[in-house]
Design goal:
The protein has about 120 residues and is an all-alpha fold. It has five helices and no strands.
Length: about 120
């Protein structure tokens, strides 16, 4: 059923409003599907490659060359290009939520304590 909707979406030669309406109606399912398609192989590669962002940053700050840090920069660059290209083509809508300073500070502290607690 969802595949038929995607085929219909891709075959539409209509206006941008029809495509936006399709994305709004099926946005959650589309996000979950794309997340599964991209996340599964990415998670497998990261797990098998013993990728650790913390170690990569620590090595780089210590003056040692780090392939983990370069892999992180490559992934970040690919993500930036892909998401911004899709947004420019009006295939995804990138919402910008308001910044809540208290939530950002508390979340950062919780993440930091969790990293120390996990000895990461």
């Amino acid at each position: 059923m969802f595949c038929n909707r995607v085929k219909e979406f891709l075959s539409q030669k209509g206006t941008l409003n029809l495509r936006r309406q399709f994305l709004l109606e099926n946005g959650m399912l589309l996000t979950a599907t794309l997340g599964l398609i991209v996340g599964t192989p990415l998670g497998f590669v990261i797990h098998r490659g013993s990728f650790c962002m913390h170690s990569g940053f620590r090595q780089t700050l210590g003056g040692e060359p780090s392939s983990s840090f370069l892999a992180y920069l490559l992934a970040l660059g690919c993500q930036l290009l892909l998401v911004n290209s899709l947004a420019a083509a009006h295939l995804v809508v990138v919402p910008v939520p308001p910044l809540t300073w208290l939530a950002a500070i508390i979340g950062g502290l919780m993440f930091g304590f969790g990293m120390v607690w996990a000895k990461g």
